[in-house]
Structures are given as structure tokens and as C-alpha cells.
Amino acid sequence: MSEINLAPDFIDRTIDSFHRVFSIFDVEHLPFIALAVFPALIWLFIFYRFHRQNKLLTTAMFLVGMLAVIPIFIFQHEIIRIEGILESLSSSIFLTILLTGIWVGFYEEISKNWVVRHFGKNFFKSIDDAILFSIVVALGFAFIENILYFHSIWNNAEIDASMRYFYVLFRSLGSMFLHIFASGIFGYYYGVAFFAKPVLRDKLASGKKFLFTRAIHRIIHLKSETIFRDEKIFEGLMIAAGLHATFDFLMGMSQHSTDGGSETGAKIFLLLAVPFLVGGYFWLTALLRKKEDHKILGELDGPDILDECDPKIVAPRNAADAKI
């Protein structure tokens, strides 16, 4: 019976999720849209400096990124149910908040990356493109999330007026940037995975051994670039979800302190996130400035790289390079 009801239920939830997103843009939400759009425009301006072409495409990716919240809405009941299960597994508020942060981090990063995969990958020419499109999609996601968040706290009579402004400011700068740098770092690994074949060739030529990739290739005869691609996507997801979980833990503990009547404790946890975000900024900036990430890449398909090469010496494919 559940199988019969699943499809209609899914369709209803999907329609309702689209309605929830588009209903945000009404008169009631205008003040919160204004609050949310200002930091989004600032971050877009900052990252436009790294990508001076395809402004129209970048803007389109921002708009599409707003739809990344739809999977969250569709499966909101499942998310809440699993959060309840996580809460029941531990009596420790610290562990509960941490586990919930990890779960939500995975879910949101997968949702944003799904949008990049389906709407941006046809425009990738370099790893840098994957990073920047991931950033812009994250901005669109955070823009919608902030509108809902600002509306929620402004209508919460239990939150002091001064704390409301504090949360709005910190959310605009902190939470939005968390989405930017977590997704940007995931975008780097996804870009490496997307261009797995040329990247793997370059790294093999530079002397990298890739013992794990070679071993799996020999055992189960999967293409080496397929193994390398899956490894990088998994690595990127783990890092992005871990960063997301760390930030959500700090925010969760801040909210827990607020609920407990300790504004000082709430601010301490918020301020602890500052060095974390600063570190994320330098990490992401370093990735955006890596010269090899800007190199135009191609040749996504073809014979397996490890089969083309001598097991001990990586032979160049280019005939001109092969001359001694």
C-alpha cells in the first residue's frame, strides 16, 4: 500500500515545495528579502573578480541555486524524523547537536552539488569553473535560507531585539559564507573528479603513484579515472559536510545557550565561529588562485590511463612529448 501512495505523496510534496519557495517573494517577506539580498550581492561582487566572464550564466546559476532548497522541503519530514532518532540515541546535548549537524551537512551539500551537476557541468572548462559555480549555487541556496531564517527570528517574541540584530548580522556574514566556502571546496573536488582523466594523467606524469587507484583497477578492472573520480567526490563531500557540521554545531550550541537564557554563552559560541570562517576564507581563496585550476581541460573519455602507461613508467600520450 505504501508503494501505491508514495508517488502521489512525493508529487504533492514537490508541488508544495515549489509553492513554498515562490510564496517567499510576497509583500510580507519584502523586508527580509532586502536583508538577505544585500550580503548575497556583496559576496557575488567579491567572487565576480575571480571570474570575469559569463556574468549572465553566473546570474542564472544563482537563480537556479535558489531551487536547491526544494529537496530539503520535499524530504523535510524525513529530515526531522532522522533528527529525532539522533536525539534519542544520546542523552548528551553536545553529541546530539553534533550528529544532527553532520546529517544536515551531508543533506544540504548533496542538494547543492546536485544542482551544480545538472545545470552547470555542461559549461565547465576548468576546475575553477566548478568551484565558482558551486559558490554561486550556494549563494542562491543561502539567500532563500536567510529569508526564512530572518522571518522566523523576527517573529519570535522570546528573542531579545538586540539579539535579533546580532543574529541577522552574523547570519548574513557567517552562515552565508559557510555555504560559500563549504560548497566551494566541494566544488574543487567535484571539478577534479569531473576532469578525472586529464587530471590523473598530469598527476601520474608528475610522479604521483596512486597506489589505491592502481590496486582497485587491477582487482575489479574499473577504469582508473572512474575510481579516482568517485574517490574525489567522496573526499569532497566528507570535507564539505564536516565543515558544515562544525559550523552547525557552534550555531546549535549558541541556540541552546539562548534557549537556556544565557546570552553570553550564545555570543561566545558565535564568536568561536569567526576563526573557523577566516580559515575557510583563506582555504577557498588559495583554491581560486591555484594556476592549475584555471587551466582549460578536456578529454573526458577514452582508453584507460593506467592501461596506456607502463606499470612503472608513465608514458606520455603526446607523440611530440615522447621524443627523446
Give a nutshell description of this structure.
The chain has 14 helices and no strands.
Key words describing this protein structure:
about 325 residues, mainly alpha, 14 helices, disordered N terminus
How is this structure best described in words?
The protein has 324 residues and is mostly helical. The protein is 77% helix and 0% strand. It has helices at residues 2-23, 30-48, 55-65, 70-74, 76-89, 93-119, 127-154, 161-194, 196-205, 211-220, 224-259, 263-289, 305-308, 319-322. Helix 5 packs antiparallel against helix 6 (93-119) and helix 10 crosses helix 11 (224-259). The N and C termini lie far apart (70 Å). 33% of the residues are buried. The model is unreliable at 1-6 and 310-324 (pLDDT under 50).
Specify the helix fraction band.
over 70%
Q: How many helical elements?
A: 14
Structural class: mainly alpha
Mass-distribution shape: globular
SS elements, strand count? 0
Portion in beta strands? under 5%
What is the CA-based Rg, rounded? Answer: 22 Å
From the N-terminal CA to the C-terminal CA, the straight-line distance is 70 Å
SSE run: HHHHHHHHHHHHHH
What does the main sheet amount to?
A: none
Query: What average pLDDT do the residues reach?
Result: 77
